């Protein structure tokens, strides 16, 4: 199977986002509590996420049939900008937010990565991570924050083994029988 990377310049953003949300539905359906997105939701989120989608922070992998088989999306971290805004966007609160999105920022938030279920475990995620690492370093980012992941998910933890990483947050769910 031949795979290739596709950038935002290669395909219209609406097609990329449509393919991305369809792949999201296929990939994450095995997770407990996941509800697939409807076509209406996909259209809504496409318009909402469009301003955040940047060629520096996205990676899309397609096969030779033109089907998206994997994607990775991250965005500049906004936590420090939100603190500087102190809850106010007007009159000048939007400036730190704009700087964080387009200028001074050395940290990205890794939002989402998905690989088609039949290709998981074959190294397709390595294509995404390699491409993202090159793009992010070139764009001047130094740090990346990942989202919550299960402590027992050895596949996810193994993909971070080749990177210098520090676990500084932990979330757990506990069950108590009544």
From TrEMBL:
Q: Which residues form the N-acetyltransferase domain?
A: 19-142
Provide the GO MF annotations for this entry. acyltransferase activity, transferring groups other than amino-acyl groups
> According to its UniProt record, what is one Pfam family this protein matches?
Acetyltransf_1
**InterPro entries (alphabetical):** Acyl_CoA_acyltransferase, BcerS-like, GNAT_dom
Q: Where are the transmembrane segments?
A: none
Q: What is this protein called?
A: N-acetyltransferase domain-containing protein
What is the originating organism of this protein? bioreactor metagenome
């Amino acid at each position: 199977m031949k795979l290739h990377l596709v950038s935002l310049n290669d395909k219209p953003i609406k097609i990329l986002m449509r393919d991305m949300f369809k792949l999201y539905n296929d990939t994450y359906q095995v997770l407990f509590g996941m509800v697939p997105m409807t076509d209406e939701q996909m259209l809504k989120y496409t318009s909402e996420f469009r301003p955040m989608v940047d060629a520096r922070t996205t990676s899309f992998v397609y096969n030779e049939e033109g089907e998206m088989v994997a994607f990775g999306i991250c965005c500049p971290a906004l936590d420090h900008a939100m603190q500087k805004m102190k809850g106010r966007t007007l009159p000048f609160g939007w400036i730190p937010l704009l700087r964080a999105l387009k200028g001074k920022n050395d940290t990205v938030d890794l939002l989402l990565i998905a690989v088609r279920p039949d290709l998981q475990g074959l190294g397709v995620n390595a294509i995404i991570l390699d491409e993202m690492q090159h793009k992010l370093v070139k764009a001047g980012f130094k740090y990346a924050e990942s989202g919550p992941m299960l402590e027992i998910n050895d596949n996810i933890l193994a993909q971070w083994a080749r990177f210098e990483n520090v676990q500084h947050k932990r979330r757990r769910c506990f069950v108590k029988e009544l």
